[in-house]
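Action item from last week, closing it out:
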Amino acid sequence: MIDVSKIAYSLAFLSLFGERIDLSPFLRSLEWEENEGELAVRLEAELQNTRVAGGKWLHQLLPLGGQVFLLADWGSGIQEVFRGTIFVWNYRTDPLGHLTITAYDQLIYLTKSKDDRYYKAGTTAKAIIQDIAKAWGISLGTVQGPDVALAKQVFRGDTLADMIFSVLEQAKKRGAGKWVVRSKQGKIDIIRPGQNSPVYCFGAESNVESVEDRQDIEDLVTRVKIVGAEDSEGRAPVVAQLDGRTEFGVLQEVIYKRQYDNLVAAKSAAQDILNERGQPRKQRRVSAPDLPFIRKGDKVKVVAGTLNGYYIVSSVVHDATNRTMTMGVEDVD
């Protein structure tokens, strides 16, 4: 059992010249987050600007491009939970002097950089991501896959993050399942969701502060109609129709056979639409005491409110100031 009240946080800065500064005494607020659909972890720290050793003000010692390290101890010794680069520096004058820094982990370079890249047919999604990481000087950690071979990949002016999301989505459609890309101690990990051990339990009677469970069918598709070529009078026949959960009524999408090589490819695209939008949309959030090691892709057990079972963390915001966190969770596939 982890005693949340005894969790200790420590924030340190490493300058471009190798100077290390402990920022913990100056912290006013601290949070970091991993969001769904984003690669990089974002950390924001608000500091009290003050004079430090040598007579310099704190803001003079924290330039853009410097490295920030967040350490935490939850009873297993001090461990690193974030390292990143300062991308934003913001000073606001008042009687106390507010200095806010925003840092991102290594994956931000893949998000903010574009490139042209080509991969021949048969190259695996894993090999493509490894090649991108190598080209951009980001070390690889645990790389479990996906090992599925893809069609020819041609990227023109795409961000490196979009390239990675694209090949992972293609691998998923070819049966490889879901994958999580995240940075740990400056290295890229590519892992399957839910591989963490132990799996922590959050219960209404113990450590859950609130649960939000929102479900809707506002973006639902229950039928996809495939329309063929027009005849001489402009009439276009329906050449195929795929039905999903029509118990919710008919909510129809239309695609056109001419946009695909053949009917088989058009049916595959229609099925992809049903796979992506054919189920009610679920948005679930769990607020609980902070566990700084919980990350996007981890499996948790939640027994509170309308939630009862195992879930995958799809996003997480850690608030070290108030020692709380908010997790977005989704069903385990």
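Closing note: Residues 109-191 form a domain with the Phage tail protein beta-alpha-beta fold fold (CATH 3.55.50.10).
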